[in-house]
């Protein structure tokens, strides 16, 4: 039983990170019906910017005296950087192709993914960039169950970001504008909603959440690499499809399920096949329930 609880905690930690990435996929699809396969690179870029920022704070001596402030600043810097990067990508690679076929936009997304990944390789190198190892090293022990301070921080921050996103989308005028644009761009334009601004904002929010997940990933696993966005990005896409692409709640649930399945599969079956389980779920969902567990999103829960 204690082993099950430990794996449950690990699954929540990993699933929360997948959920944050999956939200970017589902939000962009909900607004412009585009699968942004460059989204995983925002996750990787956020991890890199977080590592650089934390290394800078450690170099000037702030990390020892103000670790929480330094970590908060690193999250804000990384999220802001990736938000602006995503807006730039949308303006350059996607906006000119909105009236073209979806295949053209899909190919553009794949090309941008390769471009961003290689850009990080050229600027940051092919080797892992290590995160500071002294952050959140404490833990609570309950018998055989261990909960680290880092896991508590990741789960808590993930929950805050998910709640904040829900409040933004469903309780604010900006969220209302996003939902209106997703449902009918022509009608939303008639009531003075600027679809271009809403689309850019959607990209920015999704990339910011992915950047936060990138820093969490770096802190959790100790390092980041230029190509680390590919596999988590595909798993997050599987989570978005599992939950129902275009559905925010579905993306959150899907991310948690993918994380749980991966951790429990690795713990009870084999760690060698941990990356396979997400793809088995993706294939199964596409075959048996293509609309995902939340169904096709056609009401006001759509972004």
Description:
The chain is mainly alpha-helical. It has one domain (2-288): ABC transporter involved in vitamin B12 uptake, BtuC (Orthogonal Bundle). Helix content is 74%, strand content 4%. A hairpin with a 2-residue loop joins β2 (139-142) and β3. α1 (2-32) crosses α10 (230-243), α2 (39-59) runs antiparallel to α4 (67-94) and α7 crosses α9 (195-221). The longest helix is centred in the N-terminal third of the chain and has 31 residues, at 2-32.
Strand order of the biggest β-sheet = 1-4
Which structural category fits the helices and strands?
Answer: mainly alpha
Terminal Cα span: 39 Å
**Helicity, as a percent range:** over 70%
Order of helices and strands: HHHHHEEEHHHHEHHH
Tally of separate domains:
1
* Number of H- or I-type helical stretches: 12
CATH top-level class = Mainly Alpha
Unreliable spans are 297-301
In CATH, the architecture is: Orthogonal Bundle
Q: Would you tell me the overall average pLDDT?
A: 86
Spatial shape: globular
Biggest sheet character: 2 strands, antiparallel
Strand content: under 5%
Q: What would the CATH topology be?
A: ABC transporter involved in vitamin B12 uptake, BtuC
State Rg. Answer: 19 Å
Strands, total number: 4
Features:
303 residues, mainly alpha, two-stranded antiparallel sheet, 74% helix, globular
Which helices and strands occur, and which strands form pairs?
Elements: H1 2-32, H2 39-59, H3 62-65, H4 67-94, H5 102-124, E1 129-130, E2 139-142, E3 145-148, H6 149-171, H7 173-183, H8 185-190, H9 195-221, E4 223-224, H10 230-243, H11 248-268, H12 274-288
Antiparallel strand pairs: 1-4, 2-3
Helix pairs in contact: 1-6, 1-9, 1-10, 1-11, 2-4, 2-5, 2-9, 2-10, 4-9, 6-7, 6-9, 7-9, 10-11, 10-12, 11-12
């Amino acid at each position: 039983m204690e082993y099950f609880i430990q794996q449950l905690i690990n699954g929540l930690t990993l699933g929360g990170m997948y959920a944050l990435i999956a939200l970017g996929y589902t939000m962009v699809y909900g607004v412009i019906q585009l699968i942004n396969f460059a989204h995983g690179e925002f996750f990787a870029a956020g991890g890199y910017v977080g590592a650089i920022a934390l290394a800078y704070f450690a170099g000037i001596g702030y990390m020892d005296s103000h670790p929480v402030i330094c970590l908060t600043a690193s999250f804000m810097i990384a999220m802001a950087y990736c938000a602006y990067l995503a807006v730039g990508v949308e303006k350059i690679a996607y906006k000119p192709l909105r009236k073209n076929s979806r295949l053209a936009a899909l190919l553009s997304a794949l090309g941008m993914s390769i471009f961003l990944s290689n850009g990080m390789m050229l600027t940051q190198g092919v080797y892992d960039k290590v995160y500071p190892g002294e952050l959140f090293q404490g833990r609570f022990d309950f018998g055989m169950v261990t909960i680290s301070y880092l896991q508590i921080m990741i789960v808590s921050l993930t929950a805050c970001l998910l709640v904040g996103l829900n409040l933004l989308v469903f309780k604010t005028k900006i969220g209302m504008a996003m939902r209106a644009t997703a449902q009918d761009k022509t009608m939303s334009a008639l009531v003075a909603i600027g679809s271009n601004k809403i689309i850019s904002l959607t990209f920015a929010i999704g990339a910011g959440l992915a950047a936060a997940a990138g820093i969490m990933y770096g802190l959790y696993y100790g390092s980041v690499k230029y190509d680390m966005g590919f596999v988590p990005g595909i798993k997050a896409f599987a989570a978005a499809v599992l939950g129902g692409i275009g559905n925010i709640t579905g993306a959150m649930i899907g991310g948690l399920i993918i994380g749980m399945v991966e951790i429990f599969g690795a713990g009870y079956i084999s760690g060698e096949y941990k990356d396979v389980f997400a793809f088995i779920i993706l294939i199964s969902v596409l075959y048996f329930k293509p609309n995902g567990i939340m169904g096709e999103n056609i009401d006001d829960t759509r972004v």
